[in-house]
Amino acid sequence: MTHAFDAIIIGAGQAGPPLAGRLAGAGMKVALIERALFGGTCVNTGCMPTKAMVASAYAVHLARRAADYGITVPDGIAVNMGRVQDRAAKVAFDARTGLEAWLDGMEGCTVVRGHARFAGPKEVEVDGLRLSAPKIFVNVGGRAVVPDLPGIDTVRYLTNSGMVALDHLPEHLVIVGGSYVGLEFGQMFRRFGSRVTIVEKGPRLVSREDDDISAAIKDILEGEGIEVRLDAECISFERSGSGVKIGLHCDREPRAVVGTHVLLAVGRRPNTDDLGLDRAGVKVDDRGFIEVDDGLATSVKGIWAMGECNGRGAFTHTAYNDYEIVAANLLDEAERRVSDRVAGYALYIDPPLGRVGMSEAEARKSGAAILVGTRPMTRVGRAVEKGETQGFMKIVADQDTSRILGAAILGTSGDEAIHGILDAINAGLPWQQLKWAVPIHPTVSELIPTVLGDMKPAT
């Protein structure tokens, strides 16, 4: 027997549940299928628990600096990792159960728990139950990549999922991968009290950022006692007593580092390998990401892919925007496109990095004549008052069109202040207009017009 619906949604990540709400609200009969934890990566092993842990790490870091603010902490500072983990787990649990309860109580939506696989372009099987619908939406997310490196199958390792469940403090945490996930965990566990070594095969950290951003991030992390090993061309693994020996270099010292714990943070892969996409005729690329057009439709009419599994964005906010695009086009007779989205994201080390649009390097490669303005955080009053003056601000604009091309704010509140520039880019404002804004004092954002007032041709 096949159970017929107007729409089937596979996955309860950041795009699936709100789409279920819109479709059900429009009178459709909807089935939402989830095989594991509601809320996807963000709620369970990503944004919410990790940022809760970042907050705990910031608290202990600030406590250690109490004397800088004229505060005496009489009994010393200790980290209870069990309590840290409990707090992060509760944040995730509350969000997950709240979402699950909302979906279970949604009129017009049937929640199906189990592993969905396509049986054809209009049919899905879930543990022997067959469902059909003319519209199917895939929102299955992704997971950490486990690289095929020598010895990886002989040692114990962690990914982001395991890190948020740790209730003890690693003596020496070695992180393989010098990008966003690795750096966030690296700094937080260093602040909790672990020795931390970050291993990166490339010549610098966070390689998608400009050289000056990468260098500043490295200085921040090394200033807190984190060891950074770049150009690690001979990464390998082998057991070493109760720990793990990680190979670094082939012909120079140090050739290896020994840690008690290893975190693999070298990228993500989509959860598409066990969906039976071939039976529906849905095309994927060579990495397993579902191929979609500018409206997020797949190669098969009536099937869409949203969120991390489509390779068009690896963030919670881009997944939610995928839902907005699909819902607006289907229900509001809109013509919204992924290519209209202004790229923005943050790196949640402390101080954080807020980024929007092009980097300076990308702007140079575009061939445009560009203007660049910068300002060190040492000249931002709010940063000075908080005693957090690491980092700098940078804005890039097109000299001929006056369009703001991109910006980076590495500094206290950089993840919040960047939104003023993101909004200006979305609104299509010329940089000269934003220059005459009158921001609130004292804030980090108030320096944005100052930076714009100092724009100069790139050399």
What does this structure look like?
The longest helix is centred in the first third of the chain and has 24 residues, at 81-104. This protein is 31% helix and 23% strand. It has 459 residues and is an alpha/beta fold. Strand 5 and strand 6 (123-126) form a beta hairpin. The mean pLDDT is 97. The strands form 6 sheets. The protein has a 6-stranded antiparallel β-sheet with strand order 19-20-23-22-21-24, sandwiched between helices. A 5-stranded parallel β-sheet has the order 4-3-2-8-18, covered by helices on one side. A 4-stranded mixed β-sheet has the order 1-7-6-5. It is built from 14 helices and 24 strands. Helix 1 packs parallel to helix 9 (316-331), helix 3 (47-64) runs antiparallel to helix 4 (81-104) and helix 3 packs across helix 6. It has 3 domains: 2-144 and 269-340, FAD/NAD(P)-binding domain (3-Layer(bba) Sandwich); 152-266, 3-Layer(bba) Sandwich (FAD/NAD(P)-binding domain); 346-457, Enolase-like, domain 1 (2-Layer Sandwich), CATH 3.30.390.
